[in-house]
């Protein structure tokens, strides 16, 4: 446990590496010194007029010079705090020895107090501050102690010669010196503690400013991260749209080419499907690109919510039907613990389920020899989970390796919702994509 002296030194920042910035002499320093100068000279003449300086033998110009030099010290109280504190202590001592009545003026006492307080508050080298201020205080109290000792001896001599009658519990001269000692203890202690409080307040303001800057920087990084994540999400959506649309168009175009000569009607139907798939893909890409433009501050007219794909479990029959038209036999089953449970899924999870099925079926058509697949969506509100599983009966098709972004998108979407992913070939043949999402009751939508 630190000692009292260590706690005091820590409070005054003696071991703190921070250096308080010292401003140059500015307008407020000049105004302060000028104001103290005027008030001090006025107060000095008022006291002289009232007869308070009768015992002062120094000439008037010396008294004016003493008061003026004290006011001038305040000019550098922030720029050279320790130098000003030392000069103020010397000023107090010289004035106190040569003209104590002038030194005791309230205006000069305020000057000394502010000079010592500024030395503690503005000193950059805290160890030098402790040495300088400690030396000043010791010197001043040694001077007061000498006056006390001299006063006690003088009082004893007076008692031996005249034996005056006392009116209080203490002899007059030692009592006067003792009260002087007490007043000076409060005076110097107040200046030192006030300076320490000022220094600590400045240190705390800097820390708060640094924390505010750190928070602002972190907030900026979080905003940038949110933008990046949103763009990555949109990129995944765009990949799904393009992959699904291009795959559908490729299959339909291939079918049209094969039957173009022998079955023109079937070729026209396939080409119509290509046209419809291309239009749907272009529409979705425009929505997603519109969202990107809004994120860049382009100020597009429509809200982003209108441009973002809002697909969900309810749209899976249309997706499956489109895949069946491409020649892949797909069976869709939606298993609900309660009626309407799939419709009450949170929009984010509903979209993730839809995109997972879309990506899985696209991969089946492009990279597998499968001729059939099954899609099962399970929603159980009792145990709070939603699961989607896509299984096919094919093998990997050679020469059709993809970029892997589709499966990466599935995993990233699942991670966004704390889901568990199982992707890979089955022991019994075929390929399986299964994602399980936990549901919180407060996130389940209400139909």
UniProtKB/TrEMBL annotation:
Residues 230-295 form the Signal transduction histidine kinase subgroup 3 dimerisation and phosphoacceptor domain. It holds the Pfam family HATPase_c. SUPFAM superfamilies: ATPase domain of HSP90 chaperone/DNA topoisomerase II/histidine kinase. It comes from the Bacteria. Keywords: ATP-binding, Kinase, Membrane, Nucleotide-binding, Phosphoprotein, Transferase, Transmembrane, Transmembrane helix, Two-component regulatory system. It is an enzyme of class 2 (transferase). The keyword Protein transport does not apply. InterPro entries: HATPase_C_sf, HATPase_dom, Sensor_HK_TwoCompSys, Sig_transdc_His_kin_sub3_dim/P. Residues 352-440 form the Histidine kinase/HSP90-like ATPase domain. The chain crosses the membrane at residues 82-100, 106-123, 130-149, 169-197. It catalyses: ATP + protein L-histidine = ADP + protein N-phospho-L-histidine. One of its GO terms (molecular function) is kinase activity. Its EC number is 2.7.13.3. This is histidine kinase. It comes from Nocardioides flavus (ex Wang et al. 2016). The lineage of its organism: Bacteria, Bacillati, Actinomycetota, Actinomycetes, Propionibacteriales.
């Amino acid at each position: 446990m630190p000692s009292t002296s260590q706690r005091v030194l820590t409070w005054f920042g003696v071991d703190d590496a921070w250096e308080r910035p010292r401003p140059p002499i500015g307008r407020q320093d000049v105004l302060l010194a000028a104001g103290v100068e005027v008030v001090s000279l006025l107060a000095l003449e008022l006291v002289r007029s009232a007869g308070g300086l009768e015992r002062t033998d120094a000439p008037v110009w010396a008294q004016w010079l003493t008061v003026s030099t004290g006011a001038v010290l305040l000019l550098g109280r922030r720029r050279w705090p320790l130098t000003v504190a030392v000069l103020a202590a010397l000023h107090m001592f010289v004035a106190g020895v040569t003209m104590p009545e002038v030194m005791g003026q309230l205006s000069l006492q305020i000057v000394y107090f502010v000079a010592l307080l500024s030395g503690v508050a503005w000193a950059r080298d805290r160890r030098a501050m402790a040495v300088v201020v400690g030396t000043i205080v010791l010197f001043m109290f040694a001077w007061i102690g000498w006056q006390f000792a001299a006063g006690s001896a003088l009082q004893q001599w007076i008692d031996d010669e005249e034996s005056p009658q006392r009116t209080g519990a203490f002899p007059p001269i030692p009592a006067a010196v003792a009260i002087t000692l007490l007043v000076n203890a409060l005076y110097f202690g107040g200046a030192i503690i006030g300076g320490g409080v000022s220094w600590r307040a400045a240190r705390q303001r800097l820390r708060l400013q640094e924390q505010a800057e750190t928070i602002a920087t972190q907030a900026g990084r979080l905003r940038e991260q949110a933008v990046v994540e949103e763009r990555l999400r949109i990129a995944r959506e765009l990949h799904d749209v393009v992959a699904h649309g291009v795959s559908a168009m490729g299959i339909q175009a291939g079918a049209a080419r094969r039957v173009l000569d022998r079955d023109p009607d079937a070729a026209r139907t396939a080409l119509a499907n290509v046209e419809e798939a291309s239009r749907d893909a272009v529409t979705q890409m425009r929505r997603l690109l519109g969202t990107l433009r809004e994120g860049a501050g382009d100020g597009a007219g429509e809200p982003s919510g209108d441009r973002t794909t809002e697909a969900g479990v309810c749209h899976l029959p249309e997706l499956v039907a489109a895949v069946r038209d491409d020649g892949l036999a797909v069976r869709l089953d939606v298993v609900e613990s309660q009626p309407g449970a799939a419709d009450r899924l949170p929009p984010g999870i509903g979209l993730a389920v839809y995109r997972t099925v879309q990506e899985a079926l696209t991969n089946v058509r492009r990279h597998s020899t499968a001729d059939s697949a099954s899609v099962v969506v399970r929603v159980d509100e009792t145990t709070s989970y939603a699961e989607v599983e896509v299984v096919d009966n094919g093998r990997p098709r050679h020469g059709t390796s993809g970029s892997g972004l589709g499966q990466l998108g599935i995993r990233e979407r699942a991670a966004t919702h704390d889901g568990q992913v199982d992707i890979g070939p089955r022991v019994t043949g075929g390929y399986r994509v299964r994602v399980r999402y936990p549901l919180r009751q407060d996130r389940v939508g209400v139909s």
